Amino acid sequence: MGFKCGIVGLPNVGKSTLFNALTATAAAQAANYPFCTIEPNVGEVAVPDPRLDALARLAKSAAVVPTRLAFVDIAGLVRGASKGEGLGNQFLGHIREVDAVAQVVRCFADADVTHVEGRIDPIADIETIETELMLADLDSLERRLDLLEKKAKVGDKEAKETLDLVKRSLTLLRAGKPARLVERSREEEKAFGLLGLLTAKPVLYVANVEEAAAASGNAHSRAVEARAKAEGAGAVVISAQIEAEIAVLAPAEQADYLAAIGLEEPGLSRLIRAGYQLLDLVTFFTAGPKEARAWTVTRGTRAPQAAGAIHTDFERGFIRAETIAYDDYVSLGGEAPAREAGRLRLEGKDYTVADGDVLHFRFAT
Asked: What is the pLDDT of residues 281-296, one digit of tens each?
C-alpha cells in the first residue's frame, strides 16, 4: 500500500525496542491477515479498526483484511549527521524515502542506559534532530540555487516556480524553522514535494516513558506533548519496554497484562492510528461473502482514484461507485437493507471518498 512512517531518534532512546515490538506484532498478525510482510528494517502492521469486524459480521465475510501501515527502522542519528557524522548519510537518505517521521524521544531515566548527550532532556533531543534535518535541507537547497537562477533568467517557467519555493523554504530554514511551515497553494504541493526536504515531512513525537508512567505519562512526556501541540504535530506516550513484553503474549494474556497496568489497549495501537492520522489517510471498505477489506487513500481522493487503489483497471474503466455510509450499513443491517431503505447512493467521477464509505465499484472492461 506504500505508506511508510520512519522511526527516528538519537541512540539509546528506545527506538529499536519499539521497532522490535512492532515487528513482533506484525509477525503475530501474519497468522490472521494475508499480505502482512516483514523485511529486515520494515514492520508492516494492521491499522486497528473495529468497523471492519462489524462489516464482516454483517456481510458474512469469509476473510477480514485490514488496511496496513509500514514502519521503517532508520539508523540512529547523532549530532553532525548533516555533515556525515555517524551513519548520517544513511540516516538522511532513509528519511527521504518515507512519508512521515515518528521521532522517538527519551522520557525515562535509567542509569544502566546512557544518553548520548549525558542528560535526559527530550526537548533538547527534539531540537538536535530538527537542527540536523534543517542543516541538511539548507545544504540541499543552497546547492540548487545557482542553476535554478540561471534557468529562471532565460525564461524557464518551471525553474521560476521552483526557485520561488526554494527561496521561501530557505527563508524559513535560515530562521531555524522547518520547511513544513512553508505557506503554499494546493497547486504548488507537487513541486514542493519534489524538493525532497526532510523537514517537510509531517512529524509524530513518541514519548518513551518508564513502565510506571505508561498509563499517565510523566513531566518529560507532558513537555513533549506541549511541544507537539505548539507545532501542530502529533504525540503519543508509550513505554517501549512494556510494548515489547506485550507483543509476544497471546491475545488473552495481553488483555490481562494491560488490565493489570491500567491500560485499555497496547500503546502500539495508538501509535499505529496516530501514524495513520498523521499521513492524513482515510479508510474505505469493500464487504461481501468472500472478504471484508479496508483500503487506504489520502484524504480528498476522488472515487476513480480510490477504485485504482484496488486495481488499475477499476480506475481506467470507472463508471460509478455504489456508496453506503458506514453508519447506515451497520444500523440498517447490511447492504440489502440499506439499498431497500434508499441509503445506497450512486456517485460519479467527482465524488470525494469519505472515511468509512462502503463502496462497490462499477467499471467497464
From this structure: 999 999 999 999 999 9
